[in-house]
Design brief:
alpha+beta, elongated
Length: 117
């Protein structure tokens, strides 16, 4: 049986000073996670470890995101992290600093039991 996408949440995070892409990415993931409560997993007696969690992070410099740290920040499931170009850098020419804005999409897939007719 194929896993079905059962939830999709989006989040945004930033690092206002220092240009830390991983910090912005982690904040975006936490923002997405805090919009959801997967109570149906317990209600239906499903195993949270069986979730397939697909995280996509968008930042202007994808190679500067520590995907391992992002993966470790998720509490349940089998996690994959993909980092792509996107998000937004907001430079401050006076201080030569940059504010980093990251976007995150967190999709959860599970194999669901078939309904009994």
């Amino acid at each position: 049986m194929a896993a079905k996408r059962i939830i999709l949440e989006m989040g945004s995070g930033n690092d206002l000073h220092g240009g830390d892409y991983t910090k912005a990415a982690l904040r975006a993931v936490q923002d997405a996670l805090h919009h959801s409560s997967l109570t149906f997993i317990r209600t239906l007696g499903l195993d949270a470890r069986a979730m397939h969690v697909e995280v996509t992070i968008a930042v202007q410099q994808p190679d500067k995101v520590d995907a391992t740290a992002v993966r470790a920040s998720l509490p349940h499931g089998q996690v994959t992290v993909t980092v792509v170009k996107g998000g937004l850098d907001v430079p401050d020419p006076e201080t030569r600093d940059v504010a980093v804005i990251a976007s995150a999409a967190v999709a959860v897939r599970m194999e669901l039991p078939q309904a009994k007719h």
